[in-house]
Amino acid sequence: MAGKKTKSGMISHGMAAQNRKGRFDYTILETTEAGIVLKGPEVKSLRLGRATITEAYAAERDGEIWLFNSYIPEYQGGVLSRFEPRAPRKLLMHRKQIAHFLGAVSRAGASLVPLDIHFNARGMAKVTLGLGQGRRKEDKRHAIAERDWKRDKARLVRSSGKDY
Predict the structure, then answer these.
(1) Do residues 59 and 68 make contact, with C-beta atoms less than 8 angstroms apart?
(2) 45 near 148, Cβ under 8 Å?
(3) Residue 151 counted as domain residue
(4) Residue 122 belongs to domain with CATH number
(5) Mean pLDDT of all residues in 90-99
(6) 3-class secondary structure for the chain?
(7) Is residue 95's pLDDT more than 90?
(8) Can you give the pTM of this predicted structure?
(9) Within a domain: residue 152?
(10) How many domains are contained in the chain?
């Protein structure tokens, strides 16, 4: 779901990109919100809602958390502002948060999974990171069956309330 759009078609606040596959492939144990360092045209491109984070991952580099392999396409409106669409982008977190998440990654063998990129109420770009434990194939099947059952149950409840 995209966030609220202005006249120009840009997202002012709300969801810019979502990693639905991340929630399916990983059991999310804990989430946090982190700021992201972006250049001007990257923000404009992100506001158009054209970013992809399906293949993205977060990892440690020099004691900081970075977002790798996220795709933010070049903004077509700018002429002089070129940037690398898949460049690593620094995530802004407190030192204690970084230590907590890196400790969990090294101890439990978990992964830092970017779940979405959104704009908060102040218009700042944020990344929701999840500490995820990888799911096995049978766990994925169980998740699919559970999701289907919830959908069918909701459908039955809706249809049982109708008068014939």
Answers:
(1) yes
(2) no
(3) no
(4) 2.40.280.10
(5) 92
(6) CCCEECCCCCEEEEEEEECHHHHHHEEEEEEEEEEECCCHHHHHHHHCCCCECCCCEEEEECCEEEEECCECCCCCCCCCCCCCCCCCEEEECCHHHHHHHHHHHHHHCCEEEEEEEEECCCCCEEEEEEEEEECCHHHHHHHHHHHHHHHHHHHHHHHHCCCC
(7) yes
(8) 0.73
(9) no
(10) 1
Question: Which tens digit of pLDDT belongs to each residue from 132-153?
Answer: 888 777 777 888 888 889 999 8
Token pair recorded at residue 29:
């144990």
The tokens for 70 are: 């996220």
**Res 91: pLDDT:** 93
Query: Quick check: is 68 in a domain?
Result: yes
Rounded CA-CA distance 27/110 in Å is: 10
Alpha-carbon distance 108 to 51, whole Å? 30
* CB-count burial class (<10 Å; 0-12, 13-18, 19+) for 98: middle
Residue 126 resides in a domain? yes
CA distance 151 to 144: 11
pLDDT value, residue 162? 61
* Number of residues written out for the chain: 164
Domain enclosing residue 55, as ranges: 4-135
